[in-house]
């Protein structure tokens, strides 16, 4: 899978937020960022009881991007970041990862980046891989109540 310079720039900007959330809390709720022209900024949402659940936020953001795409999006690229846990069919241990869902004006891409949180709370971003293969993504421990 090929990622454009704009998509990579959006992911790099999101990592600033991800690092802060992961080093402080060890997890994060799904969030989005938009690229319009040379500007990158987070998409705000209304805070309520439902908006603190990952499933609600994922659905809300995906609906937003689908609607924007249908209405000739006012953005270049949108990014939805989701905290996930990944288990290979051949392994029993899980790896923490971030699913990046990239919403362009005519396509959607999904990639995963593994991460580790060290004992000193520094976050190590590891390899980025395309979706598929033998791995089964299991949405964040927050979502599964684990």
Description:
This protein is an alpha+beta fold. It is 29% helix and 38% strand. Strands 1, 2, 3, 4, 5, 6 and 7 form a 7-stranded antiparallel beta sheet that branches. The longest helix is centred in the N-terminal third of the chain and has 21 residues. It is globular, with a radius of gyration of 15 Å. The C terminus is likely disordered.
What is this structure's SSE topology?
Blueprint: H1 5-25, E1 31-36, E2 39-42, H2 54-70, E3 77-88, E4 94-103, E5 108-117, E6 123-130, E7 135-139, H3 141-144
Proportion of residues in extended strands: 35-45%
Low-confidence stretches are 132-146
> Between the first and last Cα atoms, what is the distance in angstroms?
32 Å
Total helical segments: 3
Overall spatial form: globular
Q: How does the major sheet shape up?
A: 7 strands, antiparallel
Structural class: alpha+beta
Order of helices and strands: HEEHEEEEEH
Please give a quick description of this structure.
The chain has helices at 5-25, 54-70, 141-144; strands spanning 31-36, 39-42, 77-88, 94-103, 108-117, 123-130, 135-139. The protein has 3 helices and 7 strands; from the N terminus they run αββαβββββα.
Q: Which key phrases capture this entry?
A:
alpha+beta, 3 helices, 146 residues, disordered C terminus, seven-stranded antiparallel beta sheet
